[in-house]
Amino acid sequence: MHFLTKSAAIAALGLLPTTSMADFSGAYGGLAINDFNGDSSFGEDLLGDDGFIAGLAIKEDTALGAFGGYQLQSGNLVYGGEIAITSATDGGIAGIQIDGLDSLTTDIKGRAGYVLNDRVMAYGTAGFSRVDVDLGTFEAVGAASDLEADGFIVGAGIDYLATDNIVLGAEFTNRQVEGSVETDFGEDLDVDLNINTLALRAAFKF
Fold it and tell me: Lowest-pLDDT range, 125-139, 146-160, 169-183?
């Protein structure tokens, strides 16, 4: 009788549902819609006086991007690397749209995440960011070169495993980059950019 009771208990445990862990490992690639804003600072004002102009807002806008990466998973821990490229057109400063102010942003970042359940992973990112801005519109005011700025990027996000191969997510990032622009006045103009981005992402996991 005791044996039958133990057997019944074991059989009942076998019928209980088990919680599976989401598998985020492997290569992936996808597209993102990025909403960005921030502010810019200049080491010299536009009149040539010594000083520092800070807090000129970058016009809030949206931009399309593409990304790809590879992740490893050990239990609940997920880690890997990613490269992302974002292209924006007709950006602006101080809330004013400027036709022809185009930019290309390249991010190389590491990712570390924790799988919360059978569908969701929370993660953080950190790495290198480069922003190239076409300043052709400003040639009339003395800009003799385009802006090339680089620095660091940090962020956090959530990934949702919609199917075995489709991953949907949202990610917030902050970029702190700096560079300089050659001018016709004989001195370089230092530029600091503080850019916040909220991205909605969709990826295919191979």
Answer: 125-139
Can you say whether the dihedral through the CA atoms of 134, 147, 194, 191 is positive or negative? Answer: negative
DSSP, residue by residue, the chain: -HHHHHHHHHHHHHHS--PPPP---EEEEEEEEEEEEEEEEEEE-TTS-EEEEEEEEEEEEEEEEEEEEEEEEETTEEEEEEEEEEEE-S-EETTEE-TT-EEEEEEEEEEEEEE-SSSEEEEEEEEEEEEEEE-GGGGGGTB-S-EEEEEEEEEEEEEEESSSSEEEEEEEEEEEEEEEE-BTTSS-EEEEEEEEEEEEEEEEE-
Q: What is the pTM of this model?
A: 0.77
